[in-house]
UniProtKB/TrEMBL annotation:
Domain F-box: 25-65
Keywords: Kelch repeat, Repeat
A Pfam family: Kelch_FKB95
Keyword Repeat set for record: yes
Listed PANTHER family: F-BOX DOMAIN-CONTAINING PROTEIN (PTHR46344:SF26), OS02G0202900 PROTEIN (PTHR46344)
SMART domains xref list: FBOX, Kelch
Name of the molecule in the record: F-box/kelch-repeat protein SKIP4
Length: 359
């Protein structure tokens, strides 16, 4: 019995004691303190200890910061460089320096592809589909965990796609239309359930392959297809999740949707790049498009993409030239909008898509 007791004591001594997040504080109090550390320091916080690293990368950390409204939004841009390779950059819009930083470690197989989409769900960025000169459309999906700063392969699309649209609605990713090896697949869309990690395929003849832009407004997905060079007619359809049906979008609204779009506080804005860069706003009450103002040609480098953080719209163009304007306080001087700019990189990278991720 004495031998068994001594052996038991030895095993107990060998069991590692769990290290506290902050010495002398219960973990729930430590979480309350650590969650207030600004996002730009999370990389350093992960180096403090293994427990801090695991905490910062956890769903608990992500959920707590969102619940307490401590989360911060960064902008991610998918670009193509002069070597025709994809690259990815991130911008902290609240940083005093406000400069774009590269994200390393993109999946090697995706670097040369064209027609890929990116989408954000939770604390992950998803890189979907694409094709190449000697490669058909692929169903591959990669996920970038922004907390862990790591890429991994995710569940493949139901349908191989390239040059398609991606949006998030009701906690699911929608991959819509585009080109595929089968003509019938161009009239379909896939939905991704992150909890089951599975894709489900659907079809509707109102979806056409040539998609140029998309957005979510009032709980519906809108997609705009290529404009006819003969009639200049803009074709767009809208998805109503309650019925699961795609139908033609309102003609008045669609008539002014001739550039990248973004929704801010339920209001639709479009950047008209046909002659300079002019921001337009859709007024639901009067059902008309009204100009907000022009952006200085010295600051923008079309073609541009739009993304919104709060009431601020970021206009991101070639070489990641970035102009920020607060539409809640928008003013103009002789037709030019009052804005601030972020210096562009010393490159001519083309911006393919921009998304926001909040942690």
């Amino acid at each position: 019995m004495e031998d068994q007791d001594s052996a038991s004591d030895g095993m107990n001594q060998m069991e590692p004691t769990q290290q506290s997040l902050i010495c002398g504080l219960p973990d729930d109090i430590a979480l309350l303190c650590l969650a207030r550390v600004p996002r730009k320091y999370h990389r350093i916080l992960k180096c403090v200890s293994r427990r801090c690293r695991d905490l910062v990368c956890s769903e608990e950390w992500y959920s707590y910061r969102r619940k307490q409204k401590l989360d911060e939004t960064w902008i991610y841009a998918l670009c193509r460089d002069k070597l025709e390779q994809f690259c990815c950059y991130v911008l902290d819009p609240s940083s005093p320096r406000r400069c774009w930083m590269p994200i390393e470690g993109l999946p090697p197989r995706s670097l040369k592809r064209k027609g890929m989409c990116i989408e954000v769900l939770g604390k992950k960025i998803y890189l979907l589909g694409g094709c190449g000169w000697f490669e058909d459309a692929t169903d591959e999906v990669y996920a970038y965990d922004a907390s862990a700063n790591a890429w991994s392969e995710d569940a493949p699309l139901s349908t191989a796609r390239c040059y398609f649209a991606c949006e998030v609605l009701n906690g699911k990713i929608y991959a819509i239309g585009g080109l595929s090896s089968k003509s019938s697949d161009s009239h379909s869309w896939d939905t991704y359930d992150p909890y089951a990690s599975t894709w489900t395929s659907h079809s509707d003849l109102n979806i056409v392959p040539e998609i140029e832009d998309s957005f979510v407004m009032d709980g519906k997905i809108y997609i705009r297809c290529c404009t006819s060079p003969v009639t200049s007619h803009v074709y767009a359809v809208v998805y109503e999740p309650s019925s699961g049906i795609w139908q033609h979008a309102d003609a008045d609204m669609v008539s002014g949707w001739r550039g990248p779009a973004v929704v801010v506080d339920g209001t639709l804005y479009v950047l008209d790049q046909s002659s300079g860069t002019r921001l337009m706003m859709w007024k639901k009450e009067t059902r008309e498009w009204v100009p907000v103002g022009r952006l200085s040609p010295l600051l923008t480098r079309p073609p541009c993409r739009l993304v919104a953080v709060g009431t601020s719209i970021f206009v991101i163009g070639k070489g990641l030239s970035t102009v920020m304007l607060d539409v809640g306080k928008a003013g103009n001087v002789e037709g030019a909008m009052v804005s601030s700019s972020i210096p562009n990189l010393s490159s001519d990278d083309d911006v393919i898509s921009c998304k926001c991720l909040t942690i």
